[in-house]
Amino acid sequence: MLPDMHTAEPIPEAARAEIERLLQSGDLFRYTAPENAPVALLEREFAEVMGTKYALAVSSCSAALFLSLKALGLPRDARVLIPGFTFAAVPSSVVHADCVPILCEVGANYRIDLTDFEAKLDSVQAVIVSHMRGHTSDMDAIMALCDARNIPVIEDAAHSLGTQWHGRKIGTIGRVGCFSFQSYKLLNAGEGGILITDDADLVARAVIMSGAYEHNWQKHMRPGDNSAALEQAFARWQNRLPLYNLRLGNLSAAVIRPQLAEIPRRVRDGRRNHDLVAARLATSPWIEVPDALPGEDRAPDSLQFNLVGMGDADIRAFAEAAGAAGVKIQVFGQSRDNARAFWNWGFMPEQFDLPQTRAMLMSACDTRLPARLTEAECEQVAQILLDVLHQVMGPLRAYGT
Description:
Layout: H1 14-25, H2 38-50, E1 54-58, H3 61-71, E2 79-83, H4 89-96, E3 100-104, H5 114-121, E4 126-130, H6 139-149, E5 153-156, E6 164-165, E7 168-169, E8 176-180, E9 193-197, H7 200-211, H8 228-237, H9 250-256, H10 263-281, E10 287-288, E11 296-297, E12 302-307, H11 312-324, E13 330-331, H12 355-361, E14 364-368, H13 375-393, H14 395-398
Parallel strand pairs: 2-3, 2-4, 4-5, 5-8
Antiparallel strand pairs: 1-9, 6-7, 6-11, 8-9, 10-12, 12-14, 13-14
Helix pairs in contact: 1-9, 2-9, 3-4, 3-7, 5-6, 7-8, 10-13, 11-13
């Protein structure tokens, strides 16, 4: 019998002693300690893992995206280009930042359509690239197009911790990278997020707006950090920016920090599981699993595939039967009120007709495939999906006769 694929791995034992210490001390607020609060340590350690100068831990990846936009100093109603395939939190963060989301087409491989992207680029002031479900768009082409126009790029890497693009870590390619600590992500704190950057002025603005009132920004300076640029940036923005109070708490940081050492193992096992199930599913004429782009080394914790040559009724029957057999499938465009289907974003100031993205979403399937699954369990997942597909489509239809 398959385990529940929507439960997370246990939190490492090393977190328990620190959590108990925090509970005994009551020091749950990140600015209570004069230095080395768990949140501050998490920021330093995460920046070191990613190879960046600065990190700021906040209440969610959505908060990280919002603060990144605000820290860029964009004018009100600035237009921000985002892919049409993303989670509703991404356009929401744009709206919260007093900007206007502009959607571009996404192809059947879940990546940004570069033709539509380039056609809309001259009308925007910033770009958010969502590496949706861990699928990396062509970052070389995107950065070349944006750099030529001096348009800043924010990477929404909520699903991409551990992914690399031609040897570069996703989240370190744009001006800012944003990650999630929500329960279904590689690092699990239930909620939480973090942004990384090498830009001292940008991170200083983000730190203050995250809720570093008075001179608490000093606790974001590393001991012995003589970064004149960073200190000057904090002094420059002191009392000149609104406080949105999007801080992460010490308990969440204590839960996350021991998991940093687990990243390589979770990436390795997640890739193994994904590739095993994808290879089995690719034997079906009804399933297409898009290949990774050249130079893309993914860190997947879920599996996406397209159903081909099937009508809407067959697709819905497949998803229902797979769920009944123990493998929950969502079809992005057909599950009710799905937050990843752009036509459900009724809060958008402008509406977009994206026929290519819509067609993809109507047959694109998503299922959890966590790193903690064994190879035998992955084989079982693949066999269930193939059996259900055979059941829905029938043996004659399956062989095209």
